Amino acid sequence: QSLLTQPPSVSGAPGQRVIISCSGSSSNIGAGYAVHWYQQLPGTAPKLLIYNNNNRPSGVSDRFSGSKSGSSASLAITGPQAEDEADYYCQTFDNSLTGWVFGGGTRLTVL
Amino acid sequence: QLHLQESGPGLVKPSESLSLTCTVSGGSISSTDYYWGWIRQPPGKGPDWIGSIYYTGSTYYTPSLKSRLTISIDMSKNQVSLNLISVTAADTAVYYCARIFSRDNGDNWTFDPWGQGTLVTVSS
C-alpha cells in the first residue's frame, strides 16, 4: 500500500483535459515536500515529466502541467495524444519513512 | 549525456543473494551534487525506492529491507552495486538504478535519469 494514492486509471479524448490526482499526508506532501511526476511508456523505464510541483524538464511537452495544494498534487494533461498513453507516477519525500515514496500509478488511456 | 546501465543475473534461487551493478557513463559518480539510488518495480506495480548512496559511501535504506540490503560504490569503476540477501519470490521485480538530483539546493530530489532496468526473477 503506497503512502501516495493515485486513481488506477483515467481516460480522455484529444481536446479534453485529463487530471491525475496524488493524495498524500502530513508526513509527505502536506509537510511541504515538492511533488514530482514520471511517465512510464510500455516496456520502458520511468522518465521525469514534472519536477518541483510544476516545472517541466527541457523537451517535455507543455501539454503537461502540475500543481500542488495542501496534502495533494495533480498532473494535468491538456489535449492528450495517443503517444501519451502510459503509466504516470507521483513521487515525493516522506519524513516518517525517511525516504522517497512513489504513488501506485495511474494508467492513461486516450480515447 | 549521463547514461546508467544495470547488469546482473536474471534468475536467483530463493534464500540466495541477488547482486546487481549499475555502471555510470557520461559523468562521474564522485560528484558532490548527486546521490545514486536503486528502485525496484514488481510486475504490474509501481516503483519502490529501496536505497541510496552518496559518493562518501553514506547509505540510506528503506526500513523494510534494511536488514537484507547493502549498497556500495566503486569510484574507480564508476559503479554502484546492490546486494540483497535471503531473497524470496517477493523480491521478483525490475530493478532500476537512477541518479538522485536536486534542482533546488537540496530541498527536494528527483530520480533522473534512470537506467533501462533489469528483470530479476526469484525462483527455484
Q: How would a textbook summarize the main sheet of chain B? A: 7 strands, mixed
Q: List the secondary-structure elements of chain B in sequence, H or E.
A: EEEEEEEEEEE
User: How many strand elements of chain B?
Assistant: 11
Order of helices and strands of chain A: EEEEEEEEE
Please explain how this structure is put together.
- The complex is a heterodimer of chains A (111) and B (124).
- Chain A has strands at residues 9-12, 17-23, 36-40, 47-50, 64-69, 72-78, 86-94, 99-102, 106-110.
- Helix content of chain A is 0%, strand content 46%.
- Chain A is mainly β.
- In chain A, the strands form 2 sheets. In chain A, strands 1, 3, 4, 7, 8 and 9 form a 6-stranded mixed β-sheet that branches. Chain A has a 3-stranded antiparallel β-sheet with strand order 2-6-5, with no helix packed on it.
- In chain A, strand 3 (36-40) and strand 4 (47-50) form a beta hairpin.
- Chain A contains no helices and 9 strands.
- With 124 residues, chain B is an all-beta fold.
- Chain B has strands spanning 3-7, 11-12, 18-25, 34-41, 48-54, 59-61, 69-74, 79-84, 93-102, 109-114, 118-122.
- In chain B, strands 2, 4, 5, 6, 9, 10 and 11 form a 7-stranded mixed β-sheet that branches.
- In chain B, strand 4 and strand 5 (48-54) form a beta hairpin.
- The termini of chain B are far apart.
- Chain A binds chain B through residues 2, 33-34, 36, 38, 44-48, 51-52, 55, 57, 87, 89, 91-93, 97-105, and chain B through 37, 39, 45-49, 60-63, 96, 100, 103-104, 107-117.
